[in-house]
């Protein structure tokens, strides 16, 4: 191949169409060989540029929650002082169950709602699966902390009755920043994550709950399926301001039903939309969406929950799960039946009265 390249290069040199002088030809060809050799060496020696510098800081707190005191609230503040250069930034919030031997582990049914103080800039983060195991969320702070920032979040940890009468949990928050591109200059920033003394809550808040379970099926003949669950909230419970100590949570989970029950242990295989806000939904930790931000104080509120499942996505997750378990699917089922659980929750951490029936999940 190198010889062919040299031939092409030699014949395309100036004067190649007429009889060149021998010395000039040898000189030009030698130069061409040297250039090609340099290119080959450079290509072989090519390495990725060094990664930009990074910096992080962490916060953690252990808490004991029981069946009579199943919810804990903490307000965390985070800060990145003005840097010498623009930042990439994220805040990772998660919670784990602490085993009897002190080892943290994922807790089934645990949710961690994250409500930023600045909903306009950061939106309603809610909760999901952090690193595919722990309940939690990651806040994208790239714009918010580009040139330094100071902000706050309210974190609501809710245990599940599945964890027995009482259990220790560990709340974790990691603030991470890095430089842009391959610039190795120091970041020139200081990071802090701290807990405030207020608001802090442990116990059982006033609440009103509505729940619905729907079945959805996809098959080779009908590979896509969609269902909608409307939600209505009475104006009586939507007093201003629509923020903590009032918290609206919508938890969504999908799992296999019938013959499909053992095929899904985790993984996201569907899409849920809450008034157009899209999140993945699957058989792992429940996905929590802050629905209160879609409402207006003093007015009745209607929210539409949409669920979309495809046969292709469900098949992929089923195949992966069985392979991880060391099993083999002789053939993919021609259809999958899934059960979708929707729980709408409105909590008041100042113990105001919340009338029953003020949150309604409508018929399919």
Question: Describe it for me?
Answer:
The protein is mainly beta and 364 residues long. It has three domains: 2-44; 54-203, Jelly Rolls (Sandwich), CATH 2.60.120; 206-361, Jelly Rolls. The protein is built from four helices and 20 strands. It has helices at residues 2-11, 22-44, 119-122, 311-324; strands at residues 54-66, 71-80, 87-98, 104-105, 111-116, 128-130, 134-140, 149-158, 166-179, 191-195, 201-203, 206-219, 224-233, 246-256, 268-274, 277-282, 287-289, 301-310, 335-348, 359-361. Strands 1, 3, 4, 6, 7 and 9 form a six-stranded antiparallel sheet that branches.
How big is the Rg? 29 Å
What's the β-strand tally? 20
Indicate the structural class.
Answer: mainly beta
Poorly predicted runs are 1-30, 39-44
Report strand %: 35-45%
What is the level-2 CATH architecture name of the largest domain?
A: Sandwich
Report the total helices. 4
Largest β-sheet summary: 6 strands, antiparallel
Distance between the termini: 66 Å
Q: What is the highest CATH level, the class of the largest domain?
A: Mainly Beta
CATH fold name of the largest domain, please?
Answer: Jelly Rolls
- Element-level helix/strand string: HHEEEEEHEEEEEEEEEEEEEHEE
Overall 3D form = globular
Keyword list:
6-stranded antiparallel sheet, 3 domains, Jelly Rolls, 14% helix, 45% strand, mainly beta, 364 residues, single chain, 5-stranded antiparallel sheet, globular
What is the structure about, briefly put?
This protein has helices spanning 2-11, 22-44, 119-122, 311-324; strands at residues 54-66, 71-80, 87-98, 104-105, 111-116, 128-130, 134-140, 149-158, 166-179, 191-195, 201-203, 206-219, 224-233, 246-256, 268-274, 277-282, 287-289, 301-310, 335-348, 359-361.
